[in-house]
Each structure stands twice: as structure tokens, then as C-alpha cells.
User: Fold this.
Amino acid sequence: MFINFWYPAEQSKNIGSEPVKRRMLGQDFVLWRDSKGQAHCLSNTCTHRGGSLSGGKVKDDCIQCPYHGWRFDGDGNCTAIPSLGPDPKIPARTRIDTYPVVERYGLVFCFLGDLPEEERPPIMGIKEWEQEGWSHTIQHYEFNINFQRSIENGIDPAHNEFVHDTHGFKGDWDDYKTPEVIPERTDWGTGFGFTIKAPPLAEKEMRKVSGRDDDAIIWAATGHEGVSSLWTFIHPTDEVHIHQYMFECPVDDENVKVWLINLRNFLTEPEHDERMVGRNEYVVFQDRDVLLDLNPVETPPTRNNEFFMPADLCIGEYRDRLREWEARGWRIDSDEVNRNQMKVAYAIPSPERRNIKGWVLDPVPLVDGSNAELELDKAAGE
Ligand code: FES
Ligand SMILES: [Fe+2]
Assistant:
């Protein structure tokens, strides 16, 4: 798992004046919305005796710990220590890590890391959002799947033929060959487009709209942006477009939360939403069923323990990016975190840690990036 990216914590509509606890990157956070409507995200661990802040209350726009009533404002500053009486001198070191929050596309994104604003990777954009002629649906799932496995599945063109009977032939097409993957790179990701032969659409109404009654050639494109966002465009015809954006959040190394925003430029009336959602869910669950049973749960540490094919090119590029981000010191040392699980409460380092010294919680241990750097040098020299 990686710090220094924006992660979706929840849908905006689910964050109100009651505190909620959300686990991301193996750590707990508390989120709430203040009286001005601003959402906040803080490390969930109280700096006094480790109370779980989300178990407390929101009072005067601050979160109040359920254990001894300390209060913290949305900037993480402690504003009340009841045991000191009504006019306390509050030590600055009692502060708690607080994370930048942006609400976009109906989701609450939290920046979990310490990069200054100008260096942060962006939130993946949805250019069709609120554009005329498009309508959208949002679906949410939590799966017992490692996030990297999930992202790699999204940029894997060779599985469609076997996993999805909606856009492949379950291996019954003798002349099947995965189209060539020609990567297109952005600052934070890699994608590719291709055409595939697909069976007729199951739904009569969609057949009518797309003009597809037979097996058809559909154009599709997919890619990742950053560590855990995916986009997929499916064009059954030149006029009928489905654009999907998947924002994923590693809960920990074994679980992932997924928000799927599906935009379509046909059958845009709300009465068709349910059918679109059902169709997406059918496909998502087909992926889930395969991913739930991969061995090992996470991707192996080196490519020697897997066999790469040309169709896996984008997956290889994604892993190269992960190594680059590891070389920058962004990968969490999960082994170390797990070793100390019962004894040490960590915080994901927040941007304020770059400006202020003296924090109660240790920052989450990070993998020493120099090994990844050596590997990158080696790969570049090959
Ligand atoms: S543990 Fe939070 S106030 Fe004591
Ligand atoms: Fe799939």
C-alpha cells in the first residue's frame, strides 16, 4: 500500500455531523462534517491514551474523544482537556494528524500522505461528469481482495474472453487472440485501446439502442491512473458509449473498497439506472469470483514467479510505476506494521508533519526506497 495518493473514503451523502470510522491503508480514520458543511478526516487515535475518536461525539464542530473528553478541531489541534479544568494550557504536541479532503463526483477523497499540495498526484478526472447527454450511476463494493490484484485485473485485456460472457465467448472462439496492447502513458498511468468481438447484448432494449443484434466488434479502452484508480471506455457502436471510472481504496493488504461510477450517453432516463447497475454488478462479480481465489493473495515480489505475456504489458508498466513510487519512499512497510500491531499505533504522516515537529504517534513505517531504485536502475540498464 502507498501513501501520497488521494483515496475515496466514503460517499459524500454518508458523511454528516455524526463521526464515522473508516479504515484505509491499514489505519483507522474518523470523518465528520462540520456546521459549515466542510468534511474532515483525522487519524482516529486519540493522542492521550489511544481512544477511538469515532466512538465519541461531534461538539462545537470538534470531535470529542469518548474516553476522557479531549476535543480536537478539524485541523487536528486539541481544543479541550477537561481534566485540566476550564482554562487549560494545552500542549501543542497533543495534535492529531489531519488530512486534506476534497469532495468530487459524489465521493469524499482524502489525501493520505505528507506531500505539499503542488506535488500531489491528481484525483482521476471524469470529463463527462455533469456534461449534457450523459447520466451516471454509483455502485459501491467491499471485497476481500488485495487492491493491486484488483487494479491489475482492470488493465488485463486477456481475461475478458474467459471471465465475461457479456463481452467474450468463454473460450469457445477458436481463433481468439488478444489484440496487441499499445500503451498510452500519462503522468500517473498507462492505458490502451483495442477492439474485441463480443456476443449480442442480452437486453433487448440495449440491442435496439446500439443497433447490435449479432456478434459485434466493440471498441474498448482501459487504463489506470495512480495507484488505485481505473477507467474503462466501452463503445458498442460509434454512438453508444459507456464510460466507467473505478475509484478504489485499499482497506488493508487483503481488502479493497471500490466505487464504480458508470456514465452512459444512451437510455439516460433514471428508469434505466437499475438495469445498468445490475449489468455492471453481473460483470463485477465475475471478476470478484476469480480474484477471490488467486494465489498468492498479493502479487509476488518479483516477476520471476509469474510468466508475463505481451497482453500483460500494461500490468508490467503499472508494476514499474509502483516501483517508482516505492523508490520515492511511498510504500508502507506492512510487514513492520503487522509485527508491531498490538503494541504500536501509527498514523499516516500528514502534510503538517513537514512543517511541525513533535507528534505523539509514530508515522507508519515506510519501505526504504533505495532497493526499488537499484532495481529500476537494473531494469533501465537491461
Ligand atoms: S484517550 Fe482520548 S481523552 Fe483520553
Ligand atoms: Fe473483468
